[in-house]
Amino acid sequence: MENKYDRVFNFAAGPGNLPLPVLEEAARDLINYQGSGMSVMEMSHRGSVFKKIAEEAEATFRRVMGVPDNYKVLFLQGGASTQFSAVPLNLMKTGKADYVVSGLFSGKAFKEARRFGDAACIASSEDTNFDRIPAFTKKDLRPGTDYLHVCYNNTVFGTHFAAVPDAGDVTLVADMSSCIMSEPVDVSKFGLIYAGAQKNIGPAGLTVVVVREDLLGASRPETPVMLDYKTQADAGSMYNTPPCWAIYVAGLVFRWVEETGGLAAMKARNEKKAALLYQTLEQAPLFTLNAQKDSRSLMNVTFHTADPDLDKLFVAEAAKAGLVSLAGHRKAGGMRASIYNAMPYEGVVKLCDFIQNFSEIYAKGCTK
Ligand SMILES: *Cc1c(COP(=O)(O)O)cnc(C)c1O
Question: Range(s) for CATH 3.90.1150.10 in the chain?
Answer without folding.
Answer: 262-362
